[in-house]
């Protein structure tokens, strides 16, 4: 028995936790760097067993009527909502994100998507089409489940990412083997237990824990029909290449370096709020972050003044305190990466530091000692940036805003699009005609007008260019989990054949 705060996390298949004889690793609380739990790494034999468990559940689950599947998923929705705070606490400990955030966003937005897809399939969302060809012939289509699907998650929204993949996957009649990020694995077994408690048949949702090696074994597995991946572009390239070897379906939700365009006529305070949400929410560890903030030359002073006023509302501290709205970075490796970029911005890019920088943040009295070993950085703003700087070009995935000025809207659009990434983009303006014209020219899959970051279940989201393949959520989200079968029916009694005319 370990004396860590959380019980050991095992792998999960056949509807129950499965002890493993293989090695274990630890997950830590990023706010203090203290270990939270031991986690069993899945061996190849464990992964094979989890996939076999999913494969044996598939024939029955895929032929269960959608309304019955929906009933079970909605029972899971009720359990998740009832346990919101308990699950949010786990997410806060594992990720370092403040409880004020995880209790209002993470569990909520994951659960909403499960509810959405349950209703979608119960309401006919898996229906095919009928096309009348001739009076005595027609074509009909069916949307059929794919089989055993793999989900691989990033560490920034652990439970939410797991649910965004599991919800459409299971609703469409597939079975899933899910691998949480090894950085934030605590939620995995809890989610599997919720599904089992809700009545999900054994084997429909399974968890295997571990790092890249476990992920690589999953993506290459011959019994897997699809891989849905969330993570970095470089990892996504490996995953897509591996999946292509088996001609598997893929969904790729990858990184970004998104532009936020502030227009001359905008409501400045609203734009500043948007820029802050787009850079400092979740300590900047959000894939859609609007890290390149384009501001008209003439507005720069006003914009920065308001921004600096509002920066005083960012509060680091005890992550369970309701007043804390800014947590640490997720761990040591990521801390060193983000800190490396902040130092590079100052020393090599020679950008002007408007706020923050490489020093540790200031904590409220009484919390400083406990948080001393945690992976804290200060929210940081660089201004007078140029397009060629590394801090402007590369995804930092931390609380680092770069401000760039522009002269004309056309120039801003061109510079906004000058990146190999295309996840998100947004614009702040009162001129709605102009807003739609600009949005139409922005090369990104997720765009906002006078808003930033909201991603409701109804909204299909996915990146363009190197930022991804396919979408999650919304009506289009279900299509990534089914394959089409077209059937031509001829009632004429005479097969149209070139041979009959010989
Ligand atoms: P990562 O690529 O390091 O890891 C993601 C997952 O891939 C982990 O579970 C990891 O174990 C696994 N993995 C590593 N090597 C693998 C391999 N060879 N084969 C299979 N799996 C492998 O990403 P991360 O650091 O956990 O997450 C941060 C990144 O995720 C950022 O770039 C962020 O923008 C992106 N992200 C994108 C979205 C989106 O919806 N577009 C959402 C959240 C995060």
Explain this structure to me?
The protein is α/β, with parallel strands linked by helices. The chain folds into 2 domains: 12-254, Aldehyde Dehydrogenase, Chain A, domain 1, CATH 3.40.605.10; 259-449, Aldehyde Dehydrogenase, Chain A, domain 2 (3-Layer(aba) Sandwich), CATH 3.40.309. Helix content is 37%, strand content 21%. The chain contains 15 helices and 22 strands. The protein has helices spanning 44-62, 66-82, 84-95, 99-122, 158-171, 187-198, 212-220, 233-245, 268-280, 300-311, 332-347, 390-393, 409-416, 432-441, 474-477, and strands at 11-13, 16-18, 24-29, 34-40, 130-134, 137-145, 148-152, 175-179, 205-207, 226-230, 249-253, 259-262, 292-296, 352-355, 380-383, 400-406, 421-422, 424-428, 446-449, 464-465, 468-469, 482-490. The strands form 6 sheets. It has a 7-stranded mixed sheet, sandwiched between helices. Helix 2 packs antiparallel against helix 4 (99-122). The radius of gyration is 24 Å and the shape is globular. It starts with 10 loop residues before the first strand and ends in a 12-residue tail after the last strand. The model has no long low-confidence stretch (mean pLDDT 97). Nicotinamide-adenine-dinucleotide binds next to helix 7 and helix 8.
């Amino acid at each position: 028995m370990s004396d860590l705060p959380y019980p050991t996390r095992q792998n999960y298949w056949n509807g129950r936790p499965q002890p493993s004889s293989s090695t274990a690793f630890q997950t830590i609380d990023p706010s203090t760097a203290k270990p939270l739990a031991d986690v069993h790494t899945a061996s190849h034999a464990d992964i094979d067993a989890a996939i076999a468990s999913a494969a044996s559940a598939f024939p029955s689950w895929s032929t269960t009527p959608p309304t019955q599947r929906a009933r079970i998923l909605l029972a899971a929705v009720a359990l998740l909502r009832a346990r919101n705070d308990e699950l949010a606490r786990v997410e806060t400990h594992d990720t370092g994100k403040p409880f004020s955030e995880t209790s209002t966003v993470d569990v909520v937005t994951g659960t909403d998507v499960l509810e959405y897809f349950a209703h979608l399939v119960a309401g006919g969302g898996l229906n095919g089409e009928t096309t009348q060809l001739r009076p005595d012939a027609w074509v009909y289509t069916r949307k059929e489940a794919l089989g055993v699907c793999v989900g691989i998650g990033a560490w920034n929204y652990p439970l939410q990412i797991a649910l965004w993949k599991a919800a459409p996957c299971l609703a469409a009649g597939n079975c899933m083997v899910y691998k949480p990020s090894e950085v934030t694995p605590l939620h995995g077994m809890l989610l599997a237990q919720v599904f089992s408690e809700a009545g999900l048949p054994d084997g429909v949702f399974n968890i295997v824990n571990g790092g890249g090696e476990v992920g690589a074994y999953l993506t290459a597995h011959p019994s897997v029909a699809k891989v849905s991946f969330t993570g970095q572009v470089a990892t996504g390239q490996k995953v897509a290449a591996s999946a292509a070897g088996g001609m598997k379906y893929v969904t790729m939700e990858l990184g970004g370096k998104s532009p936020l365009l502030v227009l001359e006529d905008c409501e400045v305070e609203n734009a500043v709020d948007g820029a802050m949400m787009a850079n400092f929410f979740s300590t900047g560890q959000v894939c859609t972050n609007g890290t390149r903030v384009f501001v008209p030359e003439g507005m720069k002073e006003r914009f920065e003044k308001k921004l600096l006023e509002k920066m005083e509302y960012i509060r680091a501290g005890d992550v369970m305190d309701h007043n804390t709205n800014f947590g640490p970075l997720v761990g040591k490796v990521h801390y060193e990466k983000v800190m490396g970029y902040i130092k590079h911005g100052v020393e090599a890019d020679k950008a002007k530091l408007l706020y923050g920088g490489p020093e540790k943040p200031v904590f409220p009295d009484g919390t400083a000692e406990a948080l001393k070993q945690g992976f804290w950085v200060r929210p940081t703003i660089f201004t007078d940036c140029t397009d060629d700087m590394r801090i402007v070009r590369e995804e930092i995935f931390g609380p680092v805003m770069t401000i760039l000025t522009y002269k004309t809207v056309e120039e801003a659009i061109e510079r906004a699009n000058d990146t190999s990434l295309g996840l998100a983009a947004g614009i702040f303006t009162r001129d709605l005609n102009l807003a739609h014209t600009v949005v139409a020219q922005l090369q990104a899959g997720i765009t906002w007008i006078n808003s930033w970051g909201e991603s409701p279940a109804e909204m299909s989201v996915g990146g363009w260019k190197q930022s991804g393949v396919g979408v999650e959520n919304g009506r289009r989200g279900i299509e990534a989990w089914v394959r089409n079968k077209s059937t031509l029916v001829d009632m004429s009694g005479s097969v149209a054949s070139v041979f009959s005319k010989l």
